[in-house]
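#struct-pred
JK: can someone run the complex with hypoxanthine? inputs below
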Amino acid sequence: MCTYDVIKQCADYLLDRTKHRPKIGIICGSGLGGLADQLTETDIFPYQDIPNFPVSTVTKFHAGRMVIGKLSGLEHTSTNRMSTSVSEIPVMCMQGRFHAYEGYPLWKCAMPVRVMKLMGVEKLLITYAAGGLNSKYNAGDIMIIKDHINLQGFAGNPPLQGINDERFGPRFPAMDNAYDRNLRLMAKTVASEMKLDNIIHEGTYIMLGGPSFETVAELKMLHIFGVDAVGMSTVQEVIVARHCNMKVCAFSLITNKCITEYETDDMVNVADVIGIANNRKADMQELVRRIAIAMNEN
Ligand SMILES: O=P(O)(O)O[C@H]1O[C@H](CO)[C@@H](O)[C@H]1O
Ligand code: HPA
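RT: done, structure tokens with the ligand placed:
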């Protein structure tokens, strides 16, 4: 386990090298790291330079850098949202995350969230690529997570395993409203303003260990569980963020429809995942940018 002191060393390393003091953190999913490239006045830290930080091994899809800088956008300066001004807010952006299939234990995959917390981050925006299991979802759609199923926790492998340090949070944190109701509402409003209503959904996510994609039988079982989207990340980040009282909002980019029949030659493959991420990344980045700005107002 990473102790409080080790996490603080990471946080202090970054704080000593940037003038920014972000209250919003962003984790970018596979093929969705472009948002970090939109920041200005950036301080960029390759993960291998940050003491005790994990390093990205799926570097084709995750650049493996912490990018701290300013995100700019229109801010509504009156309560009726009629008057606006350009605002710049400090954010820290993980351009790449860690997955269990890379060989990291779940607590280590989520350790950067604690680093963010000790740097002053209060709200976390998460993006990731996922397969759409809900038959109404199409490749290119976006799902706001309403809830998750912590399958690894069911199996006795939770990200909060080990001795609890109360400085981060309680031994037994609640996971009600893990995906903040107000932030979800705000996300839906912003998506409507962007005229994305026809591709936005709200649903339940499950993280599997990967890296193999799911079998038809597994997907049939997950469908019975009430799962709408399937991926290999995010849940550990959310649990660790909620443990330390950060507010969370998370978005799946549905990169493929899950295949739930045997009588087909279709196969999920990572090239399609990245292709769809590339096609839809501009909308996803704009959505996250607008939500970050709106979050900063509230
Ligand atoms: O969840 P992110 O990091 O976006 O990555 C998703 O994309 C990869 C597979 O295509 C898996 O790692 C899956 O979890
Ligand atoms: O179909 C999928 N399954 C698991 N993870 C994924 N990430 C993108 N698509 C998928």
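RT: quick notes.
The mean pLDDT is 92.
The CA atoms of residues 54 and 121 lie 20 Å apart.
JK: thanks, will look after standup
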